[in-house]
Amino acid sequence: MSEEDEFQRINVSLASVERDVRTAAFRAIYQGRTPSSFDLANDLDLLVDEVDAAIATLLGLGLMTVDEAGRVTGSHGLSLIPSDHRVLFDVGVRFVWCAVDAVGIPAAMRLNAEVESHCFQCGLPVSLTMRNGKPHGQGRESLRIGLAVSGCSGKVIQDVCPMLNFFCSQGHADRWARKVEGAKVISILQAAEIGRRTWSDIANL
Questions:
Q1: Averaged pLDDT, groups of 10, the chain, 205 residues long
Q2: Among the listed residues 193, 192, 86, 202, the one whose alpha carbon sits nearest the alpha carbon of residue 130
Q3: What is the pLDDT of residue 11?
Q4: β-sheet bridge partners, residue 147
């Protein structure tokens, strides 16, 4: 199952309040804030207990992260916690949970962004430019993303995200995919299209 399939399955099962909390937390993180449940309740005109219950569900599905104080540090793939995938937006540096997030989020939001990561096969740095949500430059043609699922925790951030990575070439991606059951390789343009569908809820934030 690809990340897109997994997210679509989860999106169907999420209650509207859970989707709203996830989106509001994403917006706050994009703005550089780590919102508390009280902050999100104010943003959404909900009871704090309703938000707390939604956060608990999202944490259980691996669609959100919080710090020791309970403030949201990551939601819907976007994070303020350093990771292997760094994205420079006009608002500053943010981090994401996987390579599809790195391409798909700016694609869905139609934003300019500079993506920095590394090849999962050889470790060399890789970069990609996004302009108005569209991939540009050499990286658009040369980079690939590997897709696979590992583990059975039921948490996207644990089972799916670690298995979605950049590769500097088709050859390196294919070498990895031959060793991983159920793996497939997609282009950057395919990842952007997946992103526009997966993050359609944040397209107009």
A1: 55 86 98 98 97 97 96 98 97 97 97 98 98 94 94 83 96 97 95 94 84
A2: 192
A3: 64
A4: 184
> How many CB atoms sit inside 10 A of residue 141's CB?
10
pTM for the full predicted model: 0.93
- How far is the C-alpha of 144 from the C-alpha of 129, rounded, in Å? 14
Instruction: Report the half-sphere exposure of 106 (CA within 13 A, side-chain side).
Output: 30
Q: 191 CB contacts (<8 Å, ≥6 apart)?
A: 99, 100, 103, 104, 107, 145
What's the pLDDT at 7?
56
